[in-house]
């Protein structure tokens, strides 16, 4: 009735931006990401508690945050097909919010894996990925390590919308992602609201969907061949296209700031001098740099020279795992 799981966050190389079903969290297009170590979230689920309790990073969760967790566990209970009683959930990330990467992907992946185990359900990446997706879309890509592809699926019930692992963490041990924190502030428009607004008002949205879907196969080829330059170029153009789609919304959504642009400019100059470094950018001002092991220290120095207040160097991460209970 009790289980603990650890999961890593992930960074999308081909981004997810926009839902075709808000309730089930079904995307308009597929996406592809790399799971990141050493950052992680550890979550314990215990059924049979006196009442539902959700503790996230030492705080009692309330409102929609709490509802999202409990809704996922209701789906677990339905799958188990037995009365499991109220749930106690304790979740803690080893990276501060200041890391710039949302902890929700790792958190919901760990919750799905721990929730299934606590309910006596077998370890099944596909089922765990579908569950994690219902908490937060990008979480479905954190159930497994390495390079994972969230297939949009076709079915209205979402049973074919989950992430599959294309290459495990050992496929490309030399690849590095360097998170550059330029701004620790909360973003003004959350991803969930920003993508909805983009779907509803951006005239570029259909082109975004078509392009992103096509890029998946290209990304897969570049990863298979360990072609950092081709993957870097793809990663940058996909990030630009996601931001261009959001910028074309009405009113426009701009997640970049002047420090973001300055870093991107500097990175281009370093690349001209022969440094293999590219960027991606989520719904916020903090770029994540793609490079290799030989250049991760130089990539960190580049980020700090551009005003990064914190830098986290990441390597490919592994699967979400269950931990022994004591
Ligand atoms: C991604 N992002 O592919 C994209 C790129 C942000 C930019 O997935 O509403 O927290 O819970 O499904 O997964 C962030 O959005 O949104 C995200 P919901 P989520 O990583």
From TrEMBL:
Residues 178-296 form the Mvd1 C-terminal domain. Its EC number is 4.1.1.33. GO terms for biological process: isopentenyl diphosphate biosynthetic process, mevalonate pathway. Residues 7-163 form the Diphosphomevalonate decarboxylase-like N-terminal domain. It is an enzyme of class 4 (lyase). GO terms for cellular component: cytosol. InterPro entries: GHMP_kinase_C_sf, Mev_decarb, Mev_diP_decarb, MVD-like_N, Mvd1_C, Ribosomal_Su5_D2-typ_SF, Ribsml_uS5_D2-typ_fold_subgr. One of its GO terms (molecular function) is diphosphomevalonate decarboxylase activity. Belongs to the diphosphomevalonate decarboxylase family. NCBIfam families: mevDPdecarb (TIGR01240). This is diphosphomevalonate decarboxylase. The lineage of its organism: Bacteria, Pseudomonadati, Myxococcota, Myxococcia, Myxococcales.
């Amino acid at each position: 009735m009790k289980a603990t799981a650890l999961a890593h966050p992930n960074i999308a190389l081909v981004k997810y931006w926009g839902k075709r079903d808000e309730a089930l969290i079904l995307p308009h297009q597929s996406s592809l990401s790399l799971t990141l170590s050493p950052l992680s979230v550890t979550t314990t689920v215990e059924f049979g508690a006196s009442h539902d309790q959700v503790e996230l990073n030492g705080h009692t969760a309330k409102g929609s945050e709490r509802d999202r967790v409990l809704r996922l566990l209701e789906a677990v209970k339905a799958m188990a097909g037995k009365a499991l009683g109220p749930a106690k959930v304790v979740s803690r990330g080893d990276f501060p919010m200041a890391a710039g990467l949302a902890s929700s992907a790792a958190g919901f992946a760990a919750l799905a894996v721990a929730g299934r185990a606590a309910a006596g359900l077998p370890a099944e990446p596909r089922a765990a990925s579908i569950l994690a997706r219902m908490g937060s879309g990008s979480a479905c890509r954190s159930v497994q390590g390495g390079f994972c592809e969230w297939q949009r699926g076709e079915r209205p019930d979402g049973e074919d919308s989950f992430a599959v692992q294309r290459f495990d963490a050992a496929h490309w041990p030399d690849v590095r992602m360097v998170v550059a924190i330029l701004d620790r502030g909360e973003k003004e428009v959350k991803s969930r609201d920003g993508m909805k607004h983009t779907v509803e008002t951006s005239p570029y949205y259909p082109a975004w969907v078509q392009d992103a879907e096509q890029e998946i196969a290209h990304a897969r080829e570049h990863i298979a061949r360990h072609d950092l330059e081709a993957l870097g170029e793809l990663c940058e153009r996909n990030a630009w296209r996601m931001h261009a789609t959001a910028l074309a919304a009405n009113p426009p959504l701009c997640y970049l700031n002047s420090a973001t642009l300055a870093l991107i400019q500097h990175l281009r100059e370093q690349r001209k001098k022969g440094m293999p470094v590219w960027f991606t950018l989520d719904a916020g001002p903090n770029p994540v740099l793609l490079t290799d092991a030989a250049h991760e220290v130089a990539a960190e120095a580049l980020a700090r020279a551009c005003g990064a207040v914190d830098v986290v160097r990441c390597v490919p991460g592994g699967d979400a795992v269950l931990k022994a209970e004591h």
